[in-house]
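Readers outside the structure-tokenisation community will struggle with the description of the input data as it stands. For illustration, here is how one protein appears when written out as sequence plus structure tokens:
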Amino acid sequence: MHEPELTHVDASGRPTMVDVGDKKVSERHAHARAFVRFPAAVAQRLRQGGLVTAKGAVIDTAIIAGTMAVKRTHELIPFCHPLPLEGCRIRIEWEGEDRLRIDCSARATYRTGIEMEALTGASVAALTVYDMCKALSHEIVIEEVALVAKRGGRRDVGAAP
């Protein structure tokens, strides 16, 4: 068993974009998740107010921002390829008393994976929730941004998205 190699570094150790021209086109799915934890009093206030703050509807705005981020991942992460995005879905729900769970699923048929798009969507949706709620507290925490699953390409990871 050999050590995995970094793919975004050339033979001289310089950063480079991976050439995906010879890779097989396949359907690819990815599911990423992030959590936003609120102080108890803030969570209670948000629940009572239907997750609407002075800035507007928190969930709707976060879904739109996350979707926009998925579509622009290649502009934000230097070595990501622009992908022909076929689908993106962001779900935001309470998990427990004080935490929102943000799930971002993305799909494309292309030569390279879509996990960075899903991770970016979940992250930006979480950042948007923070931004819209920070007037209530700066003790809000974004936590556990992670890839839950991916399908397609060389190897599958996690449960089906």
Q: What stands out?
A: Helices lie at 40-48, 58-71, 73-76, 115-133. The longest strand covers residues 26-37. Strands lie at 26-37, 52-53, 56-57, 85-95, 99-110, 141-151. The longest helix spans residues 115-133.
